Every structure is written in C-alpha cells, then in structure tokens.
Amino acid sequence: MKLITSIDYISDINASVFLTSVKNDEVLSYKYQQDKPYSLLILVDYSHNELVLEFTGKILLDKYSELINRETIEDCLSNINKLNICRLNIEGILHDAEVVKCDVTKDIATDINVINSTIRQNLTNYRKWTVKPYNSGITLENTVSTPKYKKTVSHI
Fold this sequence. Notes:
Layout: E1 2-6, E2 10-11, E3 19-23, E4 26-34, E5 40-45, E6 50-55, H1 73-81, E7 87-88, H2 90-96, E8 98-101, H3 112-121, E9 129-134, E10 137-142, E11 152-155
Antiparallel strand pairs: 1-6, 1-8, 2-7, 3-4, 4-5, 5-6, 9-10, 10-11
C-alpha cells in the first residue's frame, strides 16, 4: 500500500537512520527504506510538502493473515511508530491520506468487469486509464509520465 499525506503528520525524525538529501544547507527530504522483515518506505519530501508511506502487508506481523484493510491500517501505522525512527500522527494520516497504490486480492474483489465498471464510473476522465493484460488477470493504470503519480490496480 502507498499513502501520500501532509508532511505535518510526521515528527521526531531520527536523522541518523534516514538518508538525508541536502542542497545549499537546506534539507530537501528524508528517506528511510527497509526490505526485511517487511518492505517499508518513508519519504519526507519538503519540496512537495508530502509524506509518502509505502509498505507491504507483512508490516502487520502477527495479523498478516488479516491483510491490510480498513480495520488493520491503524496497526500498520502503529507498527511504524514502534520502530522509534519517527513519530506518525496516526489519526491525521487516517483522516487525510490518499491511497495511491494498493493491491486488491481475490478475497475482496473477484469480478473484474465490476471493478472496471466501478472505476470508470468514479473517474472524472476514464480515458486517462489503460487496461492491460497481467498474468491471468488485468491491470488498470493511469497514463502519466511521472512514476511518482503512477497508479495501478491489478487483478490476478
């Protein structure tokens, strides 16, 4: 899952564990990335006033089998706080964050035609989305040139 929200929802950044990008003595961004025991990316981008959080379901640890959903998203953010590398304002993030990337499992959605129809009905410009074959399913992607703004929905 990938969330983008306001930079106001992160504090107490431990600069010793974050990669710091500096230009003219000004901090442009902080970046933290790990792959084990779960994938986690925390990007604090001061130039865009954004906090980007990207993580896999394994961040749920003992609750991994429940997958990331409306009930477990708070646990995901709490587990980031437990790393003691920064402090996330969980309530603020839950209220304001945009989900820009998520994996939909068969357990949640099984009829790709319903997914496709629903997405197209709820987009202001559905022509900016493409449908591509993906393994034994499909992928819906927005047609943007900047990878940061790329959004993908895959159904296998």
